[in-house]
Amino acid sequence: MRKQQELAIEVRGVGRVYGDGAGQVTALSNIFLNIRQNEFFTLLGPSGCGKTTLLRLIAGFDFPTDGEILLYGEDIAPLPPFKRPVNTVFQNYALFPHMTVAQNIGFGLEMLGKPKHEIAARVEEMLALVHMEAMRNRKVMQISGGQQQRVALARALAPKPKVLLLDEPLSALDYKLRKEMQVELKRVQAETGITFIFVTHDQEEALAMSDRIAVMSHGEVRQVGAPWEIYDRPAERFVADFIGETNFLAADVISIDGPRTRVRLFNGTLLDATYPVDLMPEGKVTIVIRPEHAQLDTPSSTAMLNGQIEDLTYLGTDTHIRVRLPDTSLFTIRQQNNRVGPIGFSAGDPVSLNISEGAAQILKD
Amino acid sequence: MTERARQAASAAQKKEITNRWLLSAPALVLIAVASVGPLLIVLLYSVLAPGSYGDVKWELSGQGWFNVFLSRDIFDDTISLADAHVMILWRSAKLAVITTVLCLIVGFPTAYFIASRAPHNRSIWLFLITIPFWTNMLIRGFAIQEMIRNEGLANTILMKLGIISTPIQMLYTDFAILLGMVYVHLPLMVLPLYASLEKLDFRLVEAGYDLYATRLKVLWRIIIPLVKPGIIAGSILVFIPALSSYVIPRILGGGKNLMVGNLIELQFGQGRNWPLGAALSITLVIIVLFAMLYYVKNAGKTGGGHA
Hints:
Number of strands of chain A: 20
Helix content of chain B: over 70%
CATH superfamily of the largest domain in chain A: P-loop containing nucleotide triphosphate hydrolases
Radius of gyration of chain A: 24 Å
Radius of gyration of chain B: 25 Å
CATH superfamily of the largest domain in chain B: MetI-like
Mean pLDDT of chain A: 91
Strand content of chain A: 35-45%
Order of helices and strands of chain B: HEEHEEHHHHHHHHHHH
CATH architecture of the largest domain in chain A: 3-Layer(aba) Sandwich
Strand content of chain B: under 5%
Oligomer: heterodimer
CATH topology of the largest domain in chain B: MetI-like fold
CATH architecture of the largest domain in chain B: Orthogonal Bundle
Number of helices of chain B: 13
Largest sheet of chain A: 6 strands, mixed
Strand order of the largest sheet of chain A: 6-7-8-3-9-10
Helix content of chain A: 10-25%
């Protein structure tokens, strides 16, 4: 368990509205976030959700219309970007094309007026950190996309920012390089101990890298939590739907027992479900169950649900099976192919489903 | 490769080269007829002797070139430096350089302003920049004359406001020439600068701010190096016509303050010394050539690769 740590960034009631009158567009409304020191914090959401706007407010390229942004307790919202100890890795790197790799990395320190020998030493340190020593005298146009990415990271880290902002830095890389850079970013973060705020629309990337994730949509933060909380305990339909594949089932609340609620499915099966802390479950609710949290079996009267296989999709590591339930809805199961060969079911087979203990979560809406 | 294949390849290559020459023929003809030809005629005239009523006598003579920098005293035949010509060339170069610098100082913020507007508004601003081109330069010259003469708009306003009690002599000074030249040549600076600034990736400017560069540092270390091609192009486009200005110094300089363009005109007109005029013209071409070579070489040194 992480110890109670100092807050690096506190976002308090921040809003950003563009234009005025009838043409007013709200990009962000009433955002509250606490980002801890040394944390790898991710802002996750579809394009247009306001995650990049929030990052730009923290960087200082834009200014909030409401609220304040505290950096270690000090309001930085009105400061221009060159007065904030915060640096950014830009989506398309924005490396200076008229400078060499080393000049790019040293630029921030030079602007801070550091002595030459100190800049040179720090540049060497950064080159080593991102394994780019051999490229120090290349122009940035002469190196590959992955290498530019490393230089951009080194350039932003060189002035030792209190917080590093990363605006979809991996989106321009191909799949394999992206995976490599994910590991690389985690390593650099661990080595430097700098707080990272990472923006992405890629949920897989967010789950793989983050200490905590804030899921955003339509200019609002929908849920903040550790990757497993976001994935297994989504608070609302948007979060459950945006991250991974999900099954939604209608249920009735029977009783509440501490953190667990007893619900009844459409066929009378009783099930324990968890629920968000700020919700008082009652009446008709929607529960969510991840495809890998249900097991397929031969038909049985003691099973939680019975149905018929609609179709199967073989995916190498897993097989996806869609089961048609008696209430005509489809339930997706992901089963790991832990034995060689076909899984032994085919479309049209009658099957039963069992849901893992603690897998069901009640949604707010 | 077999012998036949090699022959076929070399034949195809020859054909390709012939085709290229054919395709560029119109441009080559145009360059020959409109640029190289006239220049050769001027070069030829510069080594002929002057005729009594203008024109040239068809005999070789070094007189024209001799007179560019030297003069022979009409009484005792002593040879001395042609002070007047050197002075005029120096003055022209000086005024052209100042004009270029002033155009850059005024033109850069203008171009930056236009490039930072929303895309659909930019064309309106560019359109406004080109409006002065619609009027004859002579008329624009007279308009400036009207504004800055002793009884003109500027002096009247200044006197009404009580800032000055007697009119300031502005017309027929270097100030008037510079004002006119900057006004006339400004669009030639703004347009190439705009073309460069428009391509500038403003995220680089943000990256500069993010890395603790103040506005001035961002301008100096990021924007200017990246738009250097535009600065070079604009400076060349302004410097060359400014150096050989004729109409503006004539109208606003009052004929006393000659520039080299006026001096050349004088030789073909009242001076009736076409060979000297031709030699002065070639001298000007050579000066421009060397100035440009020097400028481009030095400006290119510090980078500016935006390609």
